Amino acid sequence: MKWEKLLTAGRFDPKNIKQQPENQFRSEPERDYDRIIFSAPFRNLQDKTQVFPLPDHDFVHTRLTHSLEVSSVGRTLGKTAGEFLLNKYPHLKDSTISAADIGAIVAAAALTHDIGNPPFGHAGETAISDFFKFHPYGQVWQRHVTAEQWADLCNFEGNAQGFRMLVAKNNGLKLSYATLAAFTKYPRPAHIFEKERKRRSQKKFGYYSDQAEDYRHLGEILGIEKAENGCYLRHPLAFLVEAADDICYSIIDLEDGCTLGLVTLEQTIELLASILKERFDAGKLETYQTQTQKLAILRAMAINQLIQETVLAFEENEEAMLKGEFDQALTEIIPSAQALEIISDLSVKKIYRSKPVLEKEAAGFQVLEGLLEVFSKALNHKFYQTDLYSGQDKSILRLLPEDFPLDGWETNVNPYPMLRVLMDFISGMTDKYALNLYRRVKGIALPGA
């Protein structure tokens, strides 16, 4: 792969071959960033769980604050890496690309990294997947779709959902090619013959079967090559987006856990000090009076240290990325990798398996399964088991969005596109909206009650 091709200008808009003229006030990545900030899916992240249930405490992170922080770290990573690339490949300057532009690409991609996540965090992904795997009104669709489509339905993936949202023909954000590729950490479909387990980019999947042509188009424009098993290689900037996410959730989740009393201040200081090493000054830390102040300074210093280490790792492996020979998480090969692993292990035990988090996950399973059940059941009765189509089903279907495709799904028509739109509707809900709608369709609460 070649950087001049990987940074090709232009926007992902297959319906508009003739691109809009260049904006003299904002670069393409800056326009990407603005489009994302003002979009409804991004705004909805303010009411979606990061790790902890949305609490009364305003200091615990939501998906929105997490995404903003990941974007901030991503911008620094991208800009610093951009300076390295422009020095190493002076001919890139001929395309008017700047280090700030590369930083803006990573920042914009990082801003969208969780945009496809459903309500209730990662438990929401599992709940949607399990509905099709195990629920009778989920399993009923298997006979009507292809094997590739069934793999999509049984493996809901926030990354693939995000790609779907960004390239949607009617409501997509039409981001620049480079930003969209940097967003795609897992450039493969759900259904493949055999994934290469050593490749980080194949750990999950990044697009659904009906977006395969969209990614093929993107890969062709940017010159993104394929691995031996037919999956695509990562765009090198996707490694920086992933690293920004890894850095933030490792450090910020630990900070939130300490703030909520799940991890002691002493443990937190010790863990962050292991990243700072000789830069840690216990005496200076004691000059800060409150726990919040101590956590803030340690968090800032730890993130700065991790950014420096990550950029060096990127520089050392950049050529191998272009050849497809490097495919690991950058945070797994930096000097602080062991410290991050210890933080991760403690977070699993003390934070991710804490009672508030487990209660939130349990509620998420009930809510999402309940919503999928009532809508899937009504759709199945309307188009397949028509003798069971009831007045209740009719009322349920009236709750679907106005633009929901309710025509043309006879028994001989593949219902996959309709089911995808249903999952768009459910996964796009905020935590509170999903909970309130569940209560109403189940008769637990009435409108206005």
From TrEMBL:
The organism's place on the tree of life at top rank: Bacteria
The UniProt record lists the keyword NAD: no
NCBIfam families with a match to the protein in the record: dGTP_triPase
Limits of the HD domain: 63-250
Pfam families: HD, HD_assoc
Source organism of the structure: Belliella aquatica
Entry-linked PANTHER family: DEOXYGUANOSINETRIPHOSPHATE TRIPHOSPHOHYDROLASE (PTHR11373:SF32), DEOXYNUCLEOSIDE TRIPHOSPHATE TRIPHOSPHOHYDROLASE (PTHR11373)
Protein name: DGTPase
